[in-house]
Recover the amino acids of this structure.
């Protein structure tokens, strides 16, 4: 029984698989048309795949990176110098991915103390995989208490199975646990321009697991809430500040405003960063205009125009009804700073 | 000097041109890549072009239709029976276009009383064109009083020159008049999924007239307002109820919510329908899932999923700071019912 087979009864979606010789990455840029795994034979190939967004989502990126280090350790027969060099290459792929940095440093600390680097790095990577699955299940368990049978839940972007080890991330895990408890959930999914992670990834996941799901444009959130079509909102968070301010995919704040107006609970789950006091301290990534301008290989706007593409926004804690973590459900006032 | 040449000093963008023998329609489905006029030789061709959205925007559709009737009258040498049949075909192209219905009935009334149908239908169509240009200029004049030199204005979808006779519709007209008065305006434009009329049409117009313009995704409205990047909002309206409720392209309501939160004036200009008491009476067009699902010829979501695409939403009058018409600027409480 291989390591990954141990999780078979959990029906993981497996965006990242380690075979002992290769890292297999489900190519998320090809979804939903094509389900194809990239076979990566060394750490350099893994780094390139992360950089070009073949894999995305905090947990999935982190797992791809640590298995990349496992390949580095195996291929170099435990050469610590090569491992450290590869660690730097991995860190440079997505400079804002907090979980990736922490995991790489964790692996390096283990390698430095190890007498069998190749073996111990693999074990540590597997341990992180297992911990991620456990986190997903706990978040699902805790979050499921907030939902009722028959709820229609709006979500934004993708914070599901493809963004983690594959059980369901911080959103799909909740829906799966609801179902286990006999609560039927219907999900409204925003398409999430410009990368359409909602339309391309979240809907694909929900269909895989047989959920009732509806695609809407980002613009239609207000209409759907006005018409009473949405009971609750559940979104992921790239980072949650100590005071409960939420950094997530741009558009989250508009959804939160509309939810507040229509008295719809707005739930968030994601990584809490207790060192960050408020959302003001979170730097928002302004990404390339090309990501907005080029769609399916074609330009959608006139030439020589200015484009402003903030990829995230901050939802102030006043709009957040509850924060779901592996440790429980937290309600205001939020104080994660200790 | 032909009829359309008389407007040369206004620098019209001319989405609809009548040559006396043909209707020339700027193909709005090909913008911004290609500026191509369709040459339509009879009323059936015009009806087909309206139905397939080669021309869109209330005023432009209306003008295309009345010039289609002019072709019908000329080609049939004033045959009233043929004219009425063609009028029915035109009415069936876009069953919710109020201005199109009113204009066709106006033309038919004139034709019924006329001794020279072919000539009088042409004259009536030209009169409607002239009236539309005058309306655009008056809206521009009135609206420009609400803006200051240096304002950054957010707009949504396209309610500019391409949606009317070509002076500037109800949004670009305001910006043009501001400039005439020495007020420099910068415009933020939402891309406006799914048809991207903001990215494809509004930006193209603004560039044509040399305005400073920035494209953002629909999702980025909240972020831009949070950061103090937007001073005012100006949007068109497909229909305004007697109490000031506004029906406009879906997403307008979310923008209004965010504007209210950030104390940003939210201005609207469009057709007032005094017979409609409140927004509750306005039927929202639910359009085809294909319009969301197919983008540049490619599918963006998995197969067999449910899509819900309301094309418009209602912004309650409480969110509307002022309504701009050709007759002036109206402030709350609104009472257009008489």
């Amino acid at each position: 029984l291989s390591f990954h087979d141990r999780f078979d009864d959990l029906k993981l979606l497996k965006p990242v698989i380690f075979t002992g010789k290769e890292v297999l990455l489900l190519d998320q840029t090809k979804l939903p048309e094509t389900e194809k795994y990239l076979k990566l034979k060394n750490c350099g190939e893994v780094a390139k795949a992360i950089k070009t967004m073949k894999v995305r989502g905090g947990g999935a990126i982190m797992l791809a990176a640590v298995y990349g280090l496992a390949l580095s350790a195996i291929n170099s027969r435990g050469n610590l110098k090569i491992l450290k060099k590869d660690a730097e290459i991995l860190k440079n792929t997505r400079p804002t991915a907090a979980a990736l940095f922490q995991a790489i440093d964790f692996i390096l600390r283990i390698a430095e103390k190890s007498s069998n680097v190749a073996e111990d790095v693999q074990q540590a990577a597997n341990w992180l995989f297992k911990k991620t699955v456990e986190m997903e299940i706990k978040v699902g368990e805790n979050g499921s208490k907030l939902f009722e049978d028959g709820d229609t839940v709006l979500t934004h972007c993708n914070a599901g199975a493809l963004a983690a080890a594959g059980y369901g991330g911080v959103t799909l895990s909740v829906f799966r646990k609801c179902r286990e408890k006999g609560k039927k959930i219907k999900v409204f999914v925003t398409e999430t321009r410009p990368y359409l992670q909602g339309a391309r990834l979240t809907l694909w996941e929900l269909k895989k697991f047989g959920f009732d799901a509806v695609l809407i444009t980002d613009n239609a959130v207000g209409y759907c809430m006005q018409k009473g079509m949405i009971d609750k909102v559940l979104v992921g968070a790239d980072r949650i500040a100590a005071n409960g301010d939420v950094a997530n995919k741009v558009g989250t704040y508009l959804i939160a405003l509309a939810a507040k107006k229509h008295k719809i609970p707005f739930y968030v789950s994601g990584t809490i960063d207790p060192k960050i006091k408020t959302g003001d301290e979170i730097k928002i990534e302004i990404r390339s205009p090309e990501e907005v301008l080029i769609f399916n290989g074609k330009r959608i706007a006139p030439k020589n125009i200015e484009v402003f593409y903030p990829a995230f926004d901050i939802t102030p804690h006043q709009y957040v009804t509850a924060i779901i973590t592996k440790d429980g459900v937290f309600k205001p006032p939020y104080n994660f700073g200790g």
